[in-house]
Write a structure and sequence with these properties.
single chain, alpha+beta, 3 domains, 4-stranded antiparallel sheet
């Protein structure tokens, strides 16, 4: 073998060894810089297998070089009123501070938890049942007097408009001559009107709106 042949073989062996080391560094050692040799030269580095559910990111809470690590609460977008448990399988532990209800523009109704509506023009003892809200409940006509109408004014008005429906909630309200209907409604109130005096009649209602 001539000196030239030996030199050629030596250069080839050196090149092969360098490429082989590049593969080793990329696939086994977890090279942290862009590889110089091999099929990934000049591209994103190849890393070895890592712990499941870890991700490649800068340190949590401080500036620094990125590493593979577990996600932390600091990595989550800040949302007022939300609190998450720390550690594996974090869960929502509390929902506080959301005193402002979702607006109509945000897809809400502009209402939070509401109190019972006030009842007027409904005999002397017209009432809204315990648990009634701006969204649903039961209105009972006053037993005294001869009421043929009853107005329920929402404790919290809807932002723009409301639409309500009613149904009989007792035998009096279901009487054949009562013929109840909603004679007026707005974002602040609705009025139940009957064809005849309906003292003691109770009606369930459901309201929705924006």
């Amino acid at each position: 073998m001539t000196s030239k042949s030996k030199l050629t073989l030596g250069a080839a062996a050196l090149l092969f060894g360098t490429i082989a080391f590049g593969y080793f560094a990329q696939g086994v050692m977890g090279q942290t810089t862009s590889p110089t040799y091999g099929p990934n030269a000049g591209t994103v580095p190849i890393y070895p297998q890592m712990t499941q559910n870890w991700f490649f990111a800068s340190p949590s809470g401080v500036d620094g070089s990125p590493v593979f690590r577990a996600i932390t609460n600091a990595d989550l977008a800040s949302v007022s009123g939300l609190a998450f448990a720390t550690g594996a399988n974090s869960t929502l532990t509390s929902l506080t501070g959301l005193t402002t209800p979702l607006s109509v523009a945000q897809g809400g109704k502009g209402l939070g938890t509401t109190a019972a509506p006030s009842i007027t023009s409904c005999g002397t003892t017209g009432t809204a049942a315990t648990g009634s809200t701006s969204f649903h409940g039961t209105v009972t006509f006053g037993a005294s007097g001869t009421p043929s109408a009853c107005t329920a004014s929402f404790a919290t008005a809807f932002a723009n408009y409301a639409s309500c429906a009613i149904s009989p909630a007792n035998a009096t309200a279901a009487g054949a001559t009562i013929l109840p209907y909603i004679s007026a409604q707005s974002k602040t109130a609705f009025t139940i009107t009957t064809a005849v005096a309906a003292g003691g009649a109770a009606f369930n209602y459901v309201c929705d709106g924006q």
